[in-house]
Recover the amino acids of this structure.
């Protein structure tokens, strides 16, 4: 009897426990989640949160069975897309292939009202989801239209960050490696300033559908995350602009970013200019070796010329074959001319020395050489072949002073030629230096002014 009386109460307790369990299960199912296995466990201390909707559930609720179509433009009046670039690194600028390479973060932000989830009581305000979800969302399909190469980094997984705000704003961030064109003009090389540019636009949608804009809230829509220093260039300016470009299918919003680089010419100074200075100085030693040391002087001159040609070739090897004259070409060619002229001077001195010696042997009366009129016909014919008597020339050209001067030059002794060269060559070289550096430095300043750069940055 006792047993039979006890049974209903036991059953009652059991059913209450079962019911309680059932309610708990129902609450768990309602929140679409196994609470204990979630990465953000809901504690008993915050019962209000237990009712909230979790991230995957929100995604499912937004995208499954709601008629969300990734091919439909979110707003019929056009979607404004805010773009911002963060330049992480510029890895190279290549003169030969005329391009540059960099790693950047591309940020895009647009409002997709269909993704609004404020009303779903989200557990987290901002949803950050993986790139797989991005494939199911509408995107502006933007790309670099002038890049030679562009790729989203995908090691160890695709470097895409996607965040959805409760009000439906989508923020996408890609880490991209992009190689873009530069229009290198090497006229001022190595004092040059170069420009490279990239154009970012929506590939599919014209500006009626997608309005691309540099992020208006940000003071610098294209910013660098840390200072960029390449081995031989320095980034001195970034200029973002927006252009409406006409295409056969309508007007497109193009976002242009221009990067201005200044060459760091110290390397070229050390590798090209300094050695040429030394080579030229060495070629002047020849003037002080005297007229007797012909073999030594020839060796100096020829070695200097060879050294110069070798240096020139070395520098040219890393530059494209352009059909205009670069600053370094002018430098190298004029330096070579200086060495060539010192060899020419050597030839004249050598010739005159040999003549003098020959004349001493052939014409024992030295006076006769100095005075042509007095020299009897047939004597010292060798000289006469090259030196016409003054009267005859003057008669032919009406006594132009020039020839008198030339005559005087020709009558200079080899020692005098050496002495004059030892002053004339350095003086001419100094003048050339002043003209060269001031001309090219001014050109550089002009170019900087044309690019609206701050001069103090140069
Ligand atoms: C929920 O978590 C418990 C324990 O953490 C586990 O035993 C159970 O299988 C999980 N349920 C689901 C549906 O994942
Ligand atoms: C949980 O949500 C339901 C409906 O969505 C609501 O009726 C209930 O009051 C909520 N519970 C709490 C604790 O907020
Ligand atoms: C939602 O849709 C995706 C693909 O469209 C599917 O893989 C997924 O299982 C769906 N989820 C639910 C809860 O229906
Ligand atoms: C969500 O994003 C906004 C804007 O970026 C930020 O101010 C806010 O703190 C974020 N909220 C959470 C919970 O992360
Ligand atoms: C949506 O929310 C984000 C982050 O809180 C905010 O920056 C943005 O202005 C909001 N957009 C609209 C249209 O309210």
């Amino acid at each position: 009897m006792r047993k039979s009386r006890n049974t209903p109460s036991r059953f009652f307790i059991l059913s209450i426990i079962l019911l309680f369990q059932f309610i708990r299960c129902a609450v768990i199912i309602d929140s679409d989640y196994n609470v204990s296995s979630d990465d953000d466990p809901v504690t008993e201390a915050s019962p209000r949160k237990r009712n909230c909707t979790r991230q995957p559930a929100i995604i499912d609720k937004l995208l499954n069975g709601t008629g969300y179509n990734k091919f439909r433009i979110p707003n019929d009046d056009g979607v404004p897309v805010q773009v911002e670039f963060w330049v992480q690194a510029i890895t190279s600028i290549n003169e030969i292939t005329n391009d540059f390479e960099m790693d950047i973060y591309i940020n895009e932000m647009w409002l997709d009202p269909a993704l609004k989830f404020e009303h779903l009581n989200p557990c987290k305000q901002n949803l950050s989801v993986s790139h797989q979800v991005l494939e199911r969302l509408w995107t502006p399909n933007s790309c670099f239209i002038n890049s030679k190469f562009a790729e989203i980094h995908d090691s160890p997984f695709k470097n895409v960050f996607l965040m959805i705000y409760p009000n439906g704003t989508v923020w996408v961030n890609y880490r991209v490696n992009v190689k873009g064109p530069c229009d290198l003009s090497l006229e001022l090389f190595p004092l040059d300033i170069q420009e490279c540019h990239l154009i970012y636009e929506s590939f599919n949608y014209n500006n009626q559908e997608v309005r691309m804009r540099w992020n208006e809230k940000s003071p610098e829509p294209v910013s660098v995350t840390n200072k960029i220093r390449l081995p031989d260039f320095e980034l001195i300016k970034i200029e973002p602009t927006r252009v409406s470009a006409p295409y056969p299918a309508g007007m497109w919003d193009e976002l242009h970013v221009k990067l201005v680089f200044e060459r760091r010419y110290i390397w070229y100074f050390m590798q090209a200019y300094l050695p040429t200075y030394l080579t030229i100085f060495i070629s002047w030693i020849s003037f002080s070796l005297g007229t007797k040391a012909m073999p030594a002087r020839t060796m100096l001159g020829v070695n200097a010329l060879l050294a110069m040609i070798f240096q020139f070739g070395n520098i040219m090897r890393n530059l494209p074959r352009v059909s205009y004259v670069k600053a370094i070409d002018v430098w190298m060619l004029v330096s070579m001319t200086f060495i060539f002229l010192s060899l020419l001077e050597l030839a004249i001195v050598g010739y005159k020395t040999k003549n003098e010696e020959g004349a001493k042997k052939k014409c024992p009366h030295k006076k006769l050489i100095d005075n042509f009129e007095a020299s009897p016909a047939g004597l010292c014919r060798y000289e006469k072949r090259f030196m016409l008597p003054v009267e005859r020339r003057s008669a032919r050209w009406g006594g132009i002073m020039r020839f008198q001067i030339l005559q005087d030059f020709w009558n200079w002794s080899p020692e005098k030629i050496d002495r004059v060269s030892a002053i004339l060559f350095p003086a001419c070289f100094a003048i050339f230096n002043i003209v060269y550096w001031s001309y090219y430095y001014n050109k550089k300043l002009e170019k900087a002014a044309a690019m609206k750069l701050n001069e103090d940055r140069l």
The pocket of 2-acetamido-2-deoxy-beta-D-glucopyranose (ligand 1) is lined by residues 34, 36-37 (CB under 6 Å). Confidence is low (pLDDT under 50) at residues 25-45, 372-385. The CA atoms of residues 84 and 221 lie 5 Å apart. The domain at 60-264 is CATH 2.70.170.10 (Acetylcholine Binding Protein; Chain: A,).
